[in-house]
Amino acid sequence: MPEIDFTERLDIETDIYLNKLLSDIMQAAASDLFLTCRKNHVDIAVRRMGSITSWGTLTREDGMRLITHIKATADMDVSRSPAPQDGRVNVALKEGSYIDLRLSTLPTLFGEDLAIRILDPKRMLLGVEDIGFHQVNLNRLISMINRPGGLVLVTGPTGMGKTTTLYACLNFLNDGTRKIHTLEDPIEFTLDGIHQSQVNLRRGVDFPDLLRGVLRQSPDVIMVGEIRDAATADIVVRAANSGQLVFATCHSGTTAGACEAMLVFGVKPQFLASSLLGIVTQRLVRKLCPDCKIPLNDHTEEDDTASGICVPKGCPKCNNTGYAGRIAVGEVLRATPEIKRLIRQSAPISEIHRIAVEQGMVDLQTDAQRKLDEGLTSPDEIIRAIPAGFDS
After folding, report:
1. Is 110 helix (H, G, I), strand (E, B) or coil?
2. Is 289 in contact with 324 (CB distance < 8 Å)?
3. Model confidence, pTM
4. Tell me: the pLDDT tens digits for 217-236?
5. Nearest-CA neighbor of 361 among 369, 352, 374?
6. What does each C-alpha distance from 249 to 154, 299, 305, 312 come to in angstroms?
7. Any bridge partners for residue 111, and if so which?
């Protein structure tokens, strides 16, 4: 928890207060900061390891002053705008480190709420081996990204580490022998040696426009932050079929479901099948604190044979939460000839999933169970984050 009392009046300089607030939040490894306007005060909350935690309150006057100060720092319109705004700013902390803040405001009944995504390169730029995938899934992923051309889709809910996984893949490939382009909204942070472009809807530049331009730049590798529409989906598939290695995200709960999502965008099944290398789906679950986790058998009177399963307890090292960090639970579908045949036939996603498992895919449920058995996470985390399997 923060060292300063956020329930008192903001009686120090606003920039000093903000610096202290951000430093404390960084120390707690939080990913988001939320300032929410209420009738008589402003709530402060953070998202840490995927869960929202209250961080205190400010008087309404001080809270509005803090929101205005942050907006001004990011060169945003400081008036109470009737429309949502987005912004970005790089902040120097007192200890000499820098962090990027991605800002989003939303007009509400009692004022203007501010959501801040904290972008810390040290937490995001991982190696592919650090994501936490099962070794079978990791080997499949590395095999796919070593291919000279084709499409790799990364799926999963918002906030489940898709961008981190994409950056890990690009970092793996960024050895100076490939021309790598990214199309992002927004650019999360700067990657040395990579050409990065950002969507600018205010100027009428969306993913399809950028993607068409990138294809004229003779790229070897392209990363598309999100497939949002039919035009982007079509160009992505065509680029992958033309010899480029393309990474992209799309909204789907499972690897097999990503095939259906692409077909809904109007991509022809035969084009998707011919371009696809594989699909990655992931969830992030909180890791149990290694200093205080306890075996499930010690927590209950039941005779559980899975002695490796542990539950959280809480200690000073984990701020009494019982958890320390997060780890990915994932599945990696490889586009084998049989999977491609099913895609061409627009087969049900349950059938695609079944064949993928028969061919050795470690699915979400299996990977989750292995992490439970190894004592890496808790049953409650798996229930919270992992969807139920296919019924058929």
Report:
1. coil
2. yes
3. 0.81
4. 999 999 998 999 999 999 99
5. 352
6. 5, 40, 39, 33
7. 108
